[in-house]
Design brief:
Belongs to the 5-formyltetrahydrofolate cyclo-ligase family. One of its GO terms (biological process) is tetrahydrofolate interconversion. The longest helix is centred in the first third of the chain and has 22 residues, at 27-48. The protein has helices spanning 7-22, 27-48, 70-79, 152-162, and strands at residues 56-58, 83-89, 94-100, 106-108, 114-116, 129-134, 138-139, 145-146, 169-173, 194-196, 201-203. The strands form three sheets. A seven-stranded mixed beta sheet has the order 3-2-1-6-9-10-11, sandwiched between helices. A two-stranded antiparallel ribbon has the order 4-5. The protein has a two-stranded antiparallel sheet with strand order 7-8. The protein has one domain (2-203): Rossmann fold (3-Layer(aba) Sandwich), CATH 3.40.50.10420. Helix 2 runs parallel beside helix 3 (70-79). By secondary structure, the chain is α/β, with parallel strands linked by helices. The protein is 28% helix and 21% strand. The radius of gyration is 17 Å and the shape is globular. It binds ligand FFO and adenosine-5'-triphosphate. The site of adenosine-5'-triphosphate (ATP) has 15 residues, from helix 4. The ligand Nc1nc2c(c(=O)[nH]1)N(C=O)[C@@H](CNc1ccc(C(=O)N[C@@H](CCC(=O)O)C(=O)O)cc1)CN2 binds next to strand 2 and helix 4.
Length: 208
């Protein structure tokens, strides 16, 4: 009998496979790869944050075995580039952005993800975001992304069009082993503009 999995099941299965693969990297392998990825991300920041009027970087604190991209936020802080990070609201599946200026601005929230503390200033004007570092489990060369299944980021990306604002540059960082032939995509999934791994930097065709 031919088994045809639906989209939902295919996403769950791929999440499990990739999470398992990603956690098989040893410390040494991880560090070398992370350094290559972080260097490329800093290169992109240099390109896109040339002056203080270039807006802010939206990023996140890594959890589980995600690529550790936190050094990018440290680099931004050292250059006076503003950084915002999301706090998730489970009831509405929204993300609230807070400006963060040091690691002390984070505390462990749901799923153990370090999120900004609630007393920090909230960013409401989304037009000031120049670039978003987007977390993800799996990616393909068409720039499709598979997340953890909360739909937080896909919902968040929709806000730009709703508010008549141009979407910032969406940049994802992942290990090579997270790049798959084809990510199962549904109507709500938003593609990335740039995908950075330890061995490649892919740009969507609309990016020069
Ligand atoms: N570092 C980081 N921060 C992030 C994300 C991310 O992918 N990485 N998210 C990206 O969106 C949001 C958090 N999304 C998450 C969604 C689900 C699970 C999770 O553990 N889910 C369970 C299954 C739960 C269920 O079925 O209801 C699991 O995987 O075991 C974790 C995070 C916001 N912050
Ligand atoms: N823009 C949206 N409006 C309403 N529901 C949405 C939207 N985007 C995603 N969803 C819903 O959220 C759920 C999770 O979506 P999906 O599996 O694509 O998440 P994901 O991309 O893996 O997660 P995330 O974006 O949090 O990393 C699905 O039920 C989906 O229908």
């Amino acid at each position: 009998m031919k088994l045809i999995m639906n989209m939902y099941q295919r996403k769950i299965e791929m999440r499990e496979q990739i999470e398992l693969k990603r956690s098989s990297l040893n410390q040494e392998e991880r560090q070398a790869r992370e350094e290559q990825i972080v260097n490329q991300l800093i290169g992109l920041c240099k390109e896109h944050f040339k002056s203080s009027s270039d807006g802010c970087l939206m990023t996140y604190m890594p959890f589980r075995t995600e690529v550790d991209i936190a050094p990018v936020m440290e680099w931004c802080w050292s250059r006076g580039i503003r950084v915002v990070a999301p706090r998730t609201v489970k009831q509405t599946r929204q993300m609230i952005l807070h400006e963060v200026t040091s690691y002390n601005d984070f505390s462990s929230g749901g799923w153990g993800i370090r999120e900004p503390i609630t007393s920090l200033p909230v960013l409401t004007d989304l037009s000031t975001i120049r670039m978003i570092l987007v977390p993800g489990l799996a990616f393909d060369t068409k720039m499709a992304r598979l997340g953890y299944g909360g739909g937080y980021y896909d919902r968040f990306f929709k806000l730009f069009a709703e508010q008549g604002i141009a979407q910032p540059l969406l940049v994802a960082a992942s290990f090579d082993l997270q790049v798959v032939p084809e990510v199962p995509v549904s109507w709500n999934d938003v593609n990335m503009d740039i995908l950075v791994t330890e061995s490649l930097q892919l740009k969507a065709s609309h990016i020069q």
